[in-house]
């Protein structure tokens, strides 16, 4: 009965979340259903287990959500994201419209811009590019997703994406974990995805199919921005609450490409300096004291690096773009507010996972996962894949997997001489594969923003975001098993 309760709870969570129900309601409901079937005390699991798990996630990662939301809103209102998109368009031209859209999405998200902000800026740009190049607009979601939500989220070393930060407290790693393997994985994802999009574009041209979208390119994005159901889909897959997108004021002019890209360079540079130079040379023995939670620098260094990097980038962005931020306080407020619902949404998923892990029946699930052939890397990849698929959230699935199985995997890896950085990279890439199934909030949001249906646009998302990521995951596991972490 306990295992049945876990499955019923997960089923409710998946089915109702896909229909736009709030995860703030669904996660505790699913947790209580699992506890009810197991005959466990309901109120104790809600207030102690569920809230303990949710609170732990929020305490660890809210600074990243907060500064990520502020940075994304500053980049949007200053016109920096749009300037980068226009710069890519001018550089590559309409003959390489597909590549321009992919690279623009990659640049802004690798620099720390929220996925939601990227979607709502890139979609109108992609409409204009695809119209000029006469490419079917149904290929837009695949191109945007490939650039904004694959290799920059899970593979490229140093990315400030929340998914890349989640394993750091569990494994004592940094955002730059297994950098060589990360670059190889990114090349596999980008290469396969671009090949598929080029194939689809050539096939459409041979069939005489061109751009057929009626109306302005911003129409679908504006409609999606005001859809309450889209907001619920977004909050567990991006770090930005769509309700805050219309708050604040945009500047009347755009910065140059160099000024727009400067804060992104600051994010990456400061992140690297904090990881490699500053924190290793700091005296952090005080962290072992009870007043600081009895922790260590290994558990917090990764989060500290990204937080300082985003804060420095926000300062640089404001200094360089102050005339283009006509209402700075409103922009900062909107960015800060945009972080609240997403962190609570993902925290609720983590609370659900904490309750599931506390069920007696979960021991059987854990043993089955750990018993998968191929070693701990394969087991970890399978666990993160399955949980990301079930929750429809890479960050939620990854946190649940590491909350429940992270210490066990770390212990097994130590016995096998596996570098924690390799565990980190496998876990992040694994979470960024099956999370992009049709019920994923980012998928639903992007299709709506582009004005495309699942029937017309999902195949390209599946190949570019799921199959290419799975291929990269296989390559990383194979190379890591043979050569170790590098």
Structure, explained:
- It is a single chain.
- With 486 residues, the protein is mostly helical.
- 73% of the residues lie in helices and 0% in strands.
- It has 23 helices and no strands.
- The protein is globular, with a radius of gyration of 22 Å.
- The protein starts with a helix and ends with a helix.
- The mean pLDDT is 90.
Write the layout of secondary structure elements.
Elements: H1 2-18, H2 23-38, H3 42-77, H4 80-92, H5 97-110, H6 115-133, H7 140-148, H8 151-154, H9 162-165, H10 167-171, H11 179-206, H12 219-225, H13 228-234, H14 257-278, H15 297-321, H16 328-337, H17 340-358, H18 362-370, H19 376-391, H20 394-416, H21 420-431, H22 441-450, H23 454-483
Helix pairs in contact: 1-2, 2-3, 2-17, 3-15, 3-16, 3-17, 4-5, 4-6, 4-14, 5-6, 5-7, 6-7, 6-22, 7-11, 7-22, 7-23, 11-23, 12-22, 13-22, 14-15, 17-20, 19-20, 19-21, 20-21, 21-23
* Low-confidence region ranges: none
Number of strands: 0
**Which structural class is indicated by helix and strand composition?**
mainly alpha
Proportion of residues in helical segments: over 70%
Order of helices and strands: HHHHHHHHHHHHHHHHHHHHHHH
**How far apart, in Å, are the first and last alpha carbons?**
45 Å
- CA gyration radius, whole angstroms: 22 Å
Major sheet details? none
The chain-level mean pLDDT equals: 90
| Morphology call | globular
Percent of sequence in beta strands: under 5%
Number of H- or I-type helical stretches: 23
């Amino acid at each position: 009965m306990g295992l049945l309760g876990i499955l019923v709870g997960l089923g409710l969570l998946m089915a109702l979340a896909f229909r736009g129900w709030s995860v703030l309601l669904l996660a505790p409901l699913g947790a209580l259903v699992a506890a009810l079937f197991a005959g466990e005390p309901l109120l104790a699991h809600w207030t102690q287990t569920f809230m303990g798990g949710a609170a732990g996630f929020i305490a660890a990662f809210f600074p990243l959500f907060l500064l990520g939301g502020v940075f994304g809103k500053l980049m949007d209102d200053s016109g920096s994201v749009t300037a980068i998109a226009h710069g890519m368009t001018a550089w590559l031209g309409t003959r390489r419209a597909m590549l321009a859209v992919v690279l623009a999405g990659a640049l802004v998200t690798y620099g720390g811009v929220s996925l939601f902000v990227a979607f709502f800026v890139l979609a109108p740009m992609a409409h204009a590019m695809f119209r000029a190049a006469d490419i079917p607009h149904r290929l837009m979601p695949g191109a945007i997703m490939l650039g904004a939500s694959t290799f920059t989220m899970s593979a490229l070393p140093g990315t400030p994406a929340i998914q890349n930060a989640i394993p750091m407290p569990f494994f004592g790693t940094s955002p730059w974990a297994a950098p060589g393997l990360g670059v190889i994985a990114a090349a596999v994802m980008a290469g396969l995805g671009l090949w598929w999009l080029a194939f689809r574009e050539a096939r459409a041209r041979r069939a005489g199919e061109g751009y057929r979208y009626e109306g302005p390119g911003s129409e679908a994005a504006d409609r999606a921005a005001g859809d309450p159901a889209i907001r619920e889909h977004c909050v567990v897959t991006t770090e930005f609450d769509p309700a805050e997108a219309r708050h604040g004021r945009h500047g009347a002019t755009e910065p140059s490409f160099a000024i727009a890209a400067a804060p992104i360079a600051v994010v990456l540079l400061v992140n690297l300096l904090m990881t490699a130079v500053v924190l290793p040379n700091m005296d952090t023995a005080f962290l072992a004291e009870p007043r600081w939670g009895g922790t260590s620098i290994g558990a917090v260094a990764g989060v500290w690096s990204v937080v300082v990097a985003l804060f420095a980038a926000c300062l640089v962005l404001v200094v360089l773009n102050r005339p283009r931020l006509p209402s700075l306080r409103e922009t900062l407020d909107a960015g800060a507010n945009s972080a609240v619902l997403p962190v609570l949404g993902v925290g609720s998923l983590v609370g659900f996972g904490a309750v599931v892990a506390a069920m007696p029946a979960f021991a059987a699930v854990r043993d089955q996962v750990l018993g998968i052939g191929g070693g701990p890397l394969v087991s970890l990849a399978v666990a993160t894949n399955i949980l990301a698929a079930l929750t429809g959230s890479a960050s939620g699935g990854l946190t649940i997997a590491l909350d429940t199985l992270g210490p066990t995997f770390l212990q097994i890896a130590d016995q096998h001489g596996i570098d924690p950085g390799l565990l980190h990279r496998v876990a992040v890439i694994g979470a960024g594969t099956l999370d992009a199934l049709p019920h994923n909030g980012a998928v639903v949001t992007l299709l709506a923003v582009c004005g495309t249906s699942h029937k017309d646009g999902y195949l390209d998302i599946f190949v570019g975001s799921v199959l290419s990521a799975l291929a990269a995951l296989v390559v990383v596991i194979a190379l890591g098993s043979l050569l170790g972490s590098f």
